[in-house]
Write a structure and sequence with these properties.
The chain is built from 8 helices and no strands. The chain is mainly alpha-helical and 180 residues long.
Length: 180
């Protein structure tokens, strides 16, 4: 089950990062352009959002569901990956401790993203950006646990969640009147 989940994650991430994606050359949703122009990685944003078939016709609500859903998928997948690393990692106790820190951090990220999704469902928008920020902070905390080591088992997944959280923050501003 976990291996299947990891294969799906790799497939999803390779698909959204594929430079040959038609979404890059012909975006059809001006709201996506507006959102992605405000993120730290425009190309990642465009490719990630257009990997979901709902995006070309999505309004602000649709983009919120797409972006928070992708962030949630990434965070839960990373949680599962951490569990597998903890099971198979027979290396030092310091690595085990670092993975446990990341496990705790990703619990916080998943919790924040679940709360954001519930807020979307109840049309309560004021905390969306803050909750997305909590998810991004969790990746920073996890990365910090592996600082000054050569073993960085979660660096890519952390980077993806951070970028997806960035998209979520910008999309959140569509609902709160924040500058976008």
């Amino acid at each position: 089950m976990v291996r299947l989940l990891l294969v799906l994650i790799v497939f999803f991430l390779s698909h959204i990062l594929s430079p040959s994606s038609a979404a890059i050359s012909n975006p059809s949703n001006k709201l996506v352009d507006k959102v992605c122009n405000q993120t730290s990685n425009n190309t990642f944003c465009v490719v990630a959002l257009y990997s979901d078939p709902r995006t070309p016709t999505a309004d602000a609500y649709g983009l919120a569901y797409v972006s928070f859903g992708m962030a949630y998928l990434n965070a839960t997948s990373t949680q599962h990956h951490i569990v597998e690393l903890l099971k198979t990692n027979s290396s030092s106790s310091s690595t085990h401790k670092r993975l446990k820190i990341c496990q705790h951090d990703y619990r916080k990220a998943v919790s924040a993203l679940e709360e954001a999704y519930n807020d979307l469902n109840s049309e309560t928008f004021f905390e969306l950006a803050e909750l997305a920020g909590h998810a991004a902070s969790a990746t920073d905390d996890c990365e910090a646990a592996f600082r000054r080591t050569h073993f960085l088992p979660l660096a890519t997944m952390n980077a993806y969640l951070k970028a997806l959280s960035d998209i979520c923050v910008v999309v959140s501003k569509l609902f709160t009147g924040g500058e976008i």
